[in-house]
Amino acid sequence: MHFTLKQLKYIEATGRLGSIANAATELHISQSSITAAIGAFERQIGYDLFVRTPAKGISVTPAGADAIRLIRAFIIQGRHFEAEVMSVGGDATGSVRISCYATAAPSFLPPILQNFKSTYPDASIKLLEGNMEATISYLTNGEADLAFTYDEMVGNGHEFTPLFKAAPYALMAADDPLANGTSVSMADLAERPMVLLDLPRTKDYFIGMFDQLGLKPTLAHSTRSAEIARALVSGGYGYSILNICPPDYRRDDTRFRTLPISDNLRAPVFGIITMSGMRQPKIVEAFVQQCVSLAQAGAFDDITVH
After folding, report:
1. Domain check: are 134 and 254 in the same one?
2. Are residues 141 and 280 in the same domain?
3. What's the domain range around 255?
4. Would you write out the chain's pLDDT as a tens digit for each of its 306 residues?
5. Exposure of 88 in the CB half-sphere (CA atoms within 13 A)
6. Is 91 within 8 Å of 118 (Cβ atoms)?
7. Which of 45, 57, 90, 153 to pair with 131, CA 20 to 30 A apart?
8. What is the pTM of this model?
9. Rg, C-alpha atoms of the chain
């Protein structure tokens, strides 16, 4: 059987994106080149990977789904092989592909990237961002070596490296009467208008905090952006609940207050998810270890509210 790594990448992208056109756009290649690669590979293996339907595009066959999983694993191992070969006889080098929960990334990533760059100046970083579900999807699809997110996203086939606990806190306007206290209760918050961060998983988590105490929030606004939530709070349209606290939220104390929540609520753990049973390149292992060392040194203490 004869095939090239480029050919396998064309097939994997088509299966993952569900479209030859989308794969061509991502890979910066012509659609005809991808079509030819798929056809040549199908002739060699003796069965169809995809079903072509006029006006509807393509869909993966059951056998094709199994084949694409094997192809994806082969591509991942090939990438790891490249990194290992590059690091033979010297320091870890190569590329680390990271998927990040976008809402949290601006707060925790800077010290990580700065530290890693100074230690491994020849290594490269590729960042993929999205909501919590997208973050895990990048990892599962083999597009990322690791994912930064919360422990609730850990599933079968995953390993979790904890970095820090991120207890929920209330972001309130500085002129709110409750902002003068040292903490705030969920019962007090339930009576006020809430600006809800409305993202997959995130919305259910925040609403669930009230449910477990037999309370209902007063939803006034919802947004998919933490910065829009901040703007609405600043404008006096309500409070918001978040977990990770950007340092400038505390510095901007003329408009905001960050108050811990006094109720006995579980504090989610933020950390790194990797695929279990997979031998990582040295550069990825070094990256994870540096993140752990930073956490132990207190590098993330100022982005949580205790």
Report:
1. no
2. yes
3. 169-260
4. 678 888 899 998 998 888 899 999 989 999 999 999 998 998 888 888 988 777 667 888 888 888 888 888 888 777 767 766 666 555 566 789 999 988 889 899 999 999 999 999 888 899 999 888 899 988 888 888 999 999 999 988 899 999 999 999 999 999 999 998 999 999 999 999 999 999 888 999 999 999 999 999 999 999 999 889 999 998 899 999 999 988 777 665 678 899 999 999 999 999 999 988 777 788 888 999 999 999 999 999 989 987
5. 6
6. no
7. 57
8. 0.73
9. 23
